[in-house]
Each structure stands twice: as structure tokens, then as C-alpha cells.
Amino acid sequence: MTASVKTLPTEMPVLQAKEQTLPTEMPALQAEKQALQKEKPVIDIFNLHRIYQTKAGSIQALRGVSLQVHRGEYVAIMGPSGSGKSTLMNILGCLDKPTSGKYYFQGTEISGYSADDMADLRATRIGFVFQSFNLLPRTSLLRNVMLPLVYSACPLSQREKRARAALKSMGLPEQLYSHKSNEISGGQMQRVAIARALINNPALILADEPTGNLDTATGEMVLETFAQLKRAGRTIVLITHEPDVAAHADRILWIRDGLILEGGTNEA
Amino acid sequence: MKLRDLFYETWFALTASKARTLLTILGIVIGIGSVIAMTSVIGGMQNMYVNELGLNQAQMVQISKSNGILESELQQLKLSFPEYDSILGSQLTSITASTSAKETMMMAVGAKPGYANAMNIKLSSGRMHNDDDEKQAARVVVLGRGIVRSLYGSEDADVVGKTLRLGNNAENFTVIGVIDSSPTAQEHNQAFVPLATSQIRLSGSKNYDSATGMATEGINTIELAQRTKAFLSERQGNDEGIYVYSMKELLEQANMVMSSFSAMIIAIASISLVVGGIGIMNMMLTNVTERTREIGLRKSLGARTGDVIRQFMAESIGLCLVGGAFGIVFGYLASWILAALVNLIQSAEKNAAQAEQLVIGDSTLATSAQIIPVIEPVSVLVAVGVCALIGIVFGFYPARRAAKMDPIESLRYQ
User: Is B392 in the same domain as B268?
Assistant: First the structure.
């Protein structure tokens, strides 16, 4: 009797320890989500306006758009042509500045950034994927993928290594790496473009109609790639006008006439 | 790191279409090439004048009077102008010379033994006449190689000891030496005799036809020549028939002519360079337009405005430097061809003149001289500098256009 009592106290801490380490699905996920919410969002825009001056007069492309995207989210922005989605993407990607409103990128307000500062942001924290791939013609895949490293001051010795790793992660076979970009298929080109977008380990991936120039099957494959990236923890914002494509994302935002209709908030 | 990348990008861009690159730089190649060719040939001509024609004797002053210089005048000059180390008088008589087989006209130079030394005349065989010959007014003659050729068939003929008849009296003279002269030198078609011999046997006059003064090193011979001329003019009452000039003056005049010619050539070639530069700018503008999407892409990947400017400026400068390199090579090849042509024409003229025995005492400049183009490192450096400048000036506007492009517009460009 005394012996078993004596062993009991030593068992308890072990049990307690085991209980603590045992992952229970719901609380853990909830805790993670809460942690993410507390962390500053990757994108936090507030009341963005963008007015263009053209010869025909001024055009209000964005009329007070606000939205938040947290790390690991996969968001699709849908809208017809002329809705302002391209303008929004350009501002999100630091290619353009809003006429008014605030943009907090990873918690830092960038409205006051100079052109060179924004360029640096694009080089290190943002990866673009375009509808028409935009690979350098007559240039090898390796050199195409390495291009962002030129502008992010990556040491020469590391460049090829990183490029190969990025291409490999996109499932592209090694014998293709020295091929020129115009010698491969459309689907392969887009995968090279995605590898290029990932090479600087960006905080945000912006995709503008990435499947627009691909057939349905290849398009599906590219979207599957994005899904994999999302599962790996990447933050993705996808612009599209096709509902089938938008359906792959976690969250869909509608934009029309310069305003977001769902998911985000309006300041009209 | 960006410098290495810049170099690589430029290389890649220039070799992407070699044919287009070559056509673009054609203007620069021709511009630089013609400047290099011209300045090399002119440099060669200047050298030729300086070396071959004795114009490198900068301290020499030539004095001549159309009615002759008296011995007393010569002595007075010596006394009045201590700046001259020596003033040596000579007589120049045009006479006939004949062997049993041939006959020719030649210029007989009668002068004291020191004259040949002062004129830097070297012999290839035999000896120059000496004081003994002078005392005796000996019938001895030293021939220039041109005369040797005219009388004996070949410049290298062994003629020391041979006899020939000279002068209106057809007296027998012995050849005692041959001058080692080049075809461009004055002495090539001259014969040297002792002064006394010339005075008594050939010219019949005691007066000098001309005097050669050698001024001390450091003396300004141009000014000295002017004073000498003034001195002689005063004695005569006027300056008619008095010619006093320093070799330096001749050299400077020749240089001036060459320089103005050079300057004109360079001005014309510069037009070609400007045209070439415009061609570069045109090509760069087209280039920038063609690569609009690429520029937009690079900006989206983080290229700063400065990066884009540097990229296209480097291409423009690279183009011009490559053009310059080809231009320099082309220029030197052209200069050799040009020099050969000029030499060919000149020897043909000289041969024709000799054949008709029209040459009596050679005083024409640029006879059958061989022009060798001068390759100066300075001109290469200047050419490279000019090319870089053209690249910068004509590349700037296209580079700025590229940098100012709106990345969003660029990415949409078809």
C-alpha cells in the first residue's frame, strides 16, 4: 500500500506533462488563429482612394476601399473589367500610390515611401505572378528565376543555388533549367514565373489573372500550385474575373465601381 | 554587386543580336577609323619632313642673296652675330657630268671641308675632300647616290677612284667618295667639290651663292634670322633678293599646314561621329520601346529608377566602346593602306621625273619619301574617351525615357 502511494506522486507529473503536450484539435487551431489575429496583418488598407487624371477628365478608380489580409490567408478579389481591381492590385503591390488613404504593409505605413523605397519593398517582400507570365525572352529559365536576386542584393554565390531550389519546388525537371523561356509550354512558363515570385521568400504573393492565358487543365494545375503554397503558409491575393478560379481561395471579395462589396468594409 | 550584374546584362544585350549591334555602331566605327587613319598618316608625313629632309637641324639658318655673298660680307656676319657657332658659305653650280658612257646634269656644291660635317653628311665609301684638296683646288668630287645611279647605273656601284668629266671645260675629276644619302635628301643629287675648285674651275666666281649658319643651342633662330636679314638689307639699302630663313621656321610652317589640315579632317570626321551618335540614340530608343514590358517587369521585381537608367546607359556606352575598338583597328589598317597609296603615287612621279632627267639638285619636298603611319597611344586614349562621351550623351535620353515609364502601363504594353 505504501509502495503504490509512494509511486503515485511521480506518475502524476508525467501524466500532467503528457496531457499538456497532447494536441487537441480545436483549441490548438483556435489558439493559432488568435495568435495570427494579434499579429499585424500583411495588408491593412484603410479608405483608399485613387483618382486618375486623364485628358478626358478625372477618373475615380477606387472610392474608399478598406481591407485586411492576414498571414497565411488566400484571398481572391473578383470584379468585372473597369471595377478597379487592377488599380487595387497595383497599389497593394506597391507599383502605385493611392491619392488618399492609408496602407499598412506588415504593420508599417508606406504612404510616405519614396519610389526607391517602394522598389525595395517589391524586391524583397512582394512576389508578382502575371497573366502573360512576363518571362524574359531568349533567356534561360535559371536566369529568369534569378532576376529578382539582382535587385535584392543577393550575393552572387548563392544565386544559382536558390534558383535551382525554387525551380525544383515547382516540380520542374533539371534538364529544362538551361532551356530558353520560349522553348517551354505555357503551363511550365507560369510555374517558372511562380518560382521567380517565390525566390526572395516574399511576405505576399500577388497574382493577376494567373490562369488567363492557359487552357483549363493547365490552369487547374497552376491553381493547385497556389493551393499548395497556401498550405505551406504563404499569403496569396489573387485577382480574377472568373468565379471558378476565385472559388479556390479561402475568402472572396467582390469589387465593383471602385468599392468592395463583400468581406471588406466600405467607407463610401 | 550591381556593377557585375550591369556588365553581364550589357554583354547579354549586345550579343543578343550581333548583326544589329554591328550595324548600329557602323557610324562610330567609320568616324573613329577615319580620324585615326588621317592623324596617323599626317603624323607620318610630319616625321618624314623632320627626319628625312634635314629639317631636324633646328638651329640651322639658310642665308642667300641673289647677287651672291662676298667673303667680306660673310666675315662681317660672323663678327656681328656671335650667336652663330659657324657660318659656312657654299657655291652652287649647275654643271654637266659625263663618263664615257653617260651624261647628266648635276648640282655641284663647292664648300670648305667643314661644310659637310656641319650638314651632317655621311659617306658610304671613300672620303670627303680635305684642306690639302682645298689648297690645291684639287679636281676631286664626292658624289651623291643619285648621281652615281645616273652615271653608273646603280646607286651601289663602286666608283671611288673613277674618273669623270665635269663642268663646261670638261676637266677630268676623280671620284673620292660617295655620300650615304637617302632619296629624299638634298645631297642625293648633289656632288661636293672643294670651294677653291668650284671658284676656279666651275663657277668662275669667288662669291658664295648661299651661306649656312649653325646657331648655338638655345638661340631663337627665327629671331636671329630676322636680324640677319635686317643686317644684310641695311647694307644693301633694300631687301631685294635677300633670303634668310631658319629651318625651324620652315618646320613650323610645315607643321602649321599639317595642323590645319589635321584639324579640318578631324572636324569632318567629327560630323561622322555625331551622325554615329544619333544612330546609337535612335537604336537605343527603339530598343527601349521594344523592351517596354521588360522594363515594367524589372520594376515590378524591384528595379529602382537609377537601376533602369544605369542599365540602358551601360548598353549605350558599351555599344560605343565596341564601335571605338573596331574603329581603331579599322583606322590603323586604313592608315597603312593610305600611306602605301601615297608612297606609290610619289615614287611613280619621282621615277618619271628622274627618267626625263628633270631633277637637278633636289629641292622638292616630299619626293619618294616613305610615309610610315604613326601609332600614338594618345590618339587611342582620346578615341576611347570620345566614344565613352558619345555613349553617355546619346544614351542619356533613351535611358531616361525607359526609367520614367509607368510600370503598370509598361506591363500592359503589347
Answer: yes
Residue A134 with chain B: CB contacts under 8 Å: 293, 296-297, 300, 411
List the single residue in B with minimal CA-CA distance to A138: B16
Q: Is residue A98 classed exposed, middle or buried when 0-12, 13-18 and 19+ CB atoms within 10 A define those classes?
A: buried
Ordered domains of chain A (ranges, CATH): 71-97+114-257 (3.40.50.300)
Contact B159, B75 (CB under 8 A): no
Question: pLDDT by residue for chain A (268 residues), tens digit each?
Answer: 444 444 444 445 555 555 455 544 566 666 666 665 568 889 999 999 999 888 888 899 999 999 999 999 999 999 888 888 889 999 999 998 999 999 999 999 998 899 999 999 999 999 999 998 999 988 899 999 999 999 988 888 889 999 999 999 999 999 888 899 889 998 999 999 999 999 999 999 999 999 999 999 999 999 999 999 999 999 999 999 889 999 999 999 999 998 988 654 433 3
Distance (Å, rounded) from C-alpha B197 to C-alpha B211? 17
Alpha helical stretches, state H, B291-355: 292-300, 305-355
Please tell me whether residues B35 and B64 are part of one structural domain.
Answer: no
- The answer on B207 and B298 residing in a single domain is no
The span from the CA of A263 to the CA of A66, in Å, is 10
Q: How far apart are the first and last CA of chain B?
A: 32
Q: Are residues B280 and B338 both part of a single domain? A: yes
Q: Are residues B209 and B280 in the same domain?
A: no
Quick one: which of B272, B374, B354 has its CA closest to B39? Answer: B374
Radius of gyration for chain B, computed over Cα atoms and rounded to the nearest angstrom:
32
Q: Which residues contact A138 (CB under 8 A, 6 or more apart)?
A: A180, A181, A182, B16
The phi, psi pair for B105, rounded to 5°, reads: -90, 145
Tens digits of per-residue pLDDT, B200-240? Answer: 888 888 888 888 888 888 888 888 889 989 988 888 888 78
Alpha-carbon distance B68 to B241, whole Å?
Answer: 9
Is this complex scored with an ipTM above 0.90? no
Distance CA A120, CA A110 (A): 12
**Which phi and psi angles does B272 have, rounded to 5°?**
-60, -40
Of B216, B242, B261, the residue at which a domain comes to its end is B216
- Which set of grid coordinates corresponds to residue B87? 657660318
| Residue among A86, A90, A147 with most chain B CBs within 10 A, to mutate | A147
For residue A140, which residues of chain B lie inside 8 Å, CB to CB? Answer: none
